[in-house]
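Work Package 3 (structural annotation) set out to generate three-dimensional models for the target panel prioritized at the project kickoff. During this period the team completed the workflow that converts sequence records into discrete structure tokens, so that structures can be stored uniformly alongside our sequence database. As a representative example, we reproduce one entry of 247 residues exactly as it appears in the project archive.
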Amino acid sequence: MPVLAAIAVAVGALYLYLRKVLGATVPEGLTIVRDADDSTEIDVDSGAVRSVQSAEVALPADTIDELWTPMSLERLARTYWRFLQRATLGLVRVYYTESERYVCLLVPQLKLLTFRAPEYEMDDRRGVVRWRIEKGLLVARPGREGDGYLEIDVVRKSSADDGAVNVAVEVEVANFYPAIASRLGRWLYAQTQSRIHVVVTQGFLRSLARLDLEPSVVGRYVGVDEVPDPTTRSPSDRQSASEVPAK
């Protein structure tokens, strides 16, 4: 309990900082079709959280054609973790193993979130990277090694501009059971950890317009045919997180 209380205070202060720094971040030189938005809900019975942030930009078609590979999808995943670390001034760090990803507070011993290795899906229109939630200080007991996940979903669409393609990106957290909500109250979770997630994710979505993708740590895939096609609908089109099969 003392550890969670200290984390709650820290994330509250961090939220105020991030709101000031990231809230005004707007990419230059590109068309924002739809700015980053948010849909977050907590199941009143189970306490499970589902949160979806999305944005859409118009980019040159030849640029998207060049980037539309599983390797770029891996780089997109790596960019998300890099942005998280930079946005939190290095307080939150990500460590890699072959089978897991650890989101830690400063040192590997303080594991806030532990994810399984990412799953990739891609075809000529849509790309998906998904991490299954395993455990961590921020995960309540019902959510440990369950069916919770973090997902980045990218869809290319036709654009009203000649020579351009619209790219819609959604970041979804689903079936997540926050420890802060279960032990210190859902209101406190909504005012702290949940808001930090939303602010950081919206900043990440805006930053993608610059196409500054981090090199992949693993470099596992090259061609689209090396990964399976997406098997579920996009987060915004799903009725619930249960449409994503558990593994």
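Residues 2-22 form the longest helix (21 residues).
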